[in-house]
Amino acid sequence: MLTAAALRALNHLLGEEDWASERLRGFVGRTVKFEVGPFSWPLEITEAGLFKRAAADAQPDVEINLPPDALLRGLTDRPSVLASARISGPADLAETIGFVFRHLRWDVEAELSRVVGDIPARRLTQVGRRFLSLQQEQATNLAMNVAEYLTHEKRAVAGRSEIAGFCCDVAGVRDTLAKLEQRIAQLEH
Asked: Is 4-103 a CATH 3.90.480.20 domain?
């Protein structure tokens, strides 16, 4: 089940964006079931344009299946998560849900400014962005180093040039085989 804290956070974001809750108000009482790997969260749209937990036996109007790595990819590449989602159900509700989640943004700086003031909030978000950027860069470098090690040092994975060469060889063998089959067919006649 979706934890109460995550549901509160989602509703907080929706509450901060009037356009989002306004779009959802048109679908009061409809249920949406989010699935990420083995986990699923059935939610119902409330009169305020927010979400609440749906009854466990509620039949979902829309089902949104996300890839198992959606939570991690959501931190670094949010558009790819939404692009890889499988959505089933009535088109109007599915499109509305998709639109809301594609355009819903958390204004971290505005939230922080309420607590610590504008200037510290600005500086904290800048530091946070730099930190996240550095972490993403380090993760990318690590992945590239591991790939290079497995490709060149360990020879556990074929490199791009080796795969391209193999594909060319296979195409050549296929062409030669097709020519041989044609010659055999001509000799048989």
From this structure: no
Sequential DSSP letters for 39-65: EEEEEEE-TTS-EEEPPTTPPPSEEEE
Q: Is the pTM here over 0.90, yes or no?
A: no
User: pLDDT tens, 40-64?
Assistant: 888 999 999 899 998 878 888 999 8
Rounded alpha-carbon distances, angstroms, from residue 3 to 31, 39, 43, 83, 140: 17, 12, 12, 25, 31
The whole-number pLDDT of residue 112 equals 85
Domain-by-domain residue ranges, the chain? Answer: 4-103, 110-188
- For 48, the token pair is 């305020």
Considering only CA atoms, which of 66, 19, 17 is closest in space to residue 40? 66
The residue among 58, 61, 57 whose CA lies nearest residue 27 is: 61
Query: Residue written as tokens 């699935």?
Result: 35
